[in-house]
Amino acid sequence: MTDSLDMSKFEKPMIIRNMTTEDIDSILEIQRICFPGMEPWERAHLYSHLTIFPEGQMVAELDGKVIGSCSSLRINFDEYDDRHTWNDITDNGFITNHNPDGYNLYGIEVMVHPEYRRMKVGQRLYEARKDLARTLNLKSIIIGGRIPNYHVHSDEMSPRDYVDAVSRHKIYDPVLTFQMMNGFILMRINPNYLPDDTASGKYATLMEWNNVDYRPLSKRHFKTSYPVRICVVQYMMRAIDSFEDFAKQCEYFVDVGSDAGSDFVVFPEIFTTQLMSFLNDKSPSQAVRKLTKYTPEYIELFTSLAVRYNVNIIGGSHFVEEEDEEIYNIAYLFRRDGTIEKQYKIHITPNERKWWGISNGDKVRVFDTDCGKIAIQICYDIEFPELARIATDMGANIIFTPFCTEDRHGYLRVRYCAQARAIENQIYTVISGTVGNLPETENMDIQYAQSAIFAPSDFEFARDGIVGETSPNLEMVLIGDVDLEILRRQRQDGTVKHLKDRRHDVYRVEYLK
Question: What does the record list as coiled-coil region(s) (predicted)?
Answer without folding.
Answer: none
